[in-house]
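Translate sequence into structure tokens.
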Amino acid sequence: MIVDGVGADLLLDPEDEEAGDVTSRLGADDKSFRLERRPIEDCVAEANKTNSPYAGLGAPLRERLKPDVPFCYGRDYSTQHLASHPQQQTVSVRVSRDLRQIGADRAKKLLPDWPDGASVSASVTTRKNGKPATLKYNCTPFEDQWQCSAAFCKTGSEADCAPQDIENAKATGCTTGESRTIYLRRGEKDFMMLGNANMGLQLETYCGQEKKTQSDDKVYRLEPMPLSACEGR
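Result follows.
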């Protein structure tokens, strides 16, 4: 089999190219290839090299979680754990989706495209603040994760604001044009992993998303919990 006319940018990521990184660009002699027949196992093995590093953990979140079924995941850290991790601010964390959010997504006709546009809540209780601080997020599939962003809209311009964006603004004092982002992905067994690289959670009273998490609050392994464990947050 002859494969001809291969472009030099075949493996080049547009973002890498924009940043000036062209290490993935093919060479001048990589335009035409004569291929010989190989066992199917060789092709399968080669294709598997591109599998997600999380594939061995089981089904992704979009299959584990159903668009019309509420869920609650969380973790409460013991006194012993906090003593051994003095830089960690988080005492308790929850990620959930309730009937109200499901109803709002259904009204927007988002359920068939699950999890694109899915509404979730994330709350944290810190050492400094003994009460949970909760933000509402909208999620979008991003590679092997869900990228979930919380937007903010000032009261007084409700006509142009989503209800949850107004709730976020009231809870934080942040204004239009600002956002926070967290990442959700499958964990081993029934666990969910929460990534908080850029202070996407409400750990501190600040606005914007540029501030990177400098403590032990970057990654959380959450376990399934009863819905009651997420209520009232």
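Note: The chain has a mean pLDDT of 88.
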